[in-house]
Amino acid sequence: TRVLVRESGMPLEDFLARMNRKAVELGLARTRFVECTGLDERNVSTAADIARLLHAAAENPTIHDITTQRGYDFLSFSASNRVRTHHISTTNRLLYGRYEIKGGKTGFISESGYCLATWIRTDQRDMIAVVLGAPTNATRFADVVRLVQHTNSMSAAPRGL
């Protein structure tokens, strides 16, 4: 995100103001940004706001493509024209599972724990799951799988009168 700020040509304060205006436009009533990376505990939001933000972001084809890739390869060049290959792997373990992922974002800072927002398509439906404050990296993914399984079993259950 720091590169996005720099490449936008806007001062950081203006970029943050636009982030906060966009949050208001999206109806994110309880979301406030104080810096652009998401690594400051003073940035605040709710699970419902994060779900709305993910839905809006993942509908953008570029963001959808980026957040659904298992990895990305690129080259860099040193001052002496040496070429170096780099590979970045996703931290979203759900991209290796049985569900179709339409977008997602992992996160971690000490104050918030392990977090995950993900848009999943299952046989029954699309669902956005948000896990905040998981105690471990693995737990956030297991929690989402349990939410999906529970939701799918509820929709398959017979309805009483």
Describe the structure.
With 161 residues, this protein is an alpha+beta fold. It contains five helices and five strands; from the N terminus they run ααααβββββα. It has helices spanning 2-8, 12-25, 47-58, 61-67, 137-156; strands at residues 71-77, 83-89, 100-109, 113-121, 126-134. Strands 3-4-5 form a three-stranded antiparallel β-sheet, sandwiched between helices. A two-stranded antiparallel ribbon has the order 1-2. The N and C termini lie far apart (52 Å).
Topology:
Elements: H1 2-8, H2 12-25, H3 47-58, H4 61-67, E1 71-77, E2 83-89, E3 100-109, E4 113-121, E5 126-134, H5 137-156
Antiparallel strand pairs: 1-2, 3-4, 4-5
Concise description?
The chain is an alpha+beta fold.
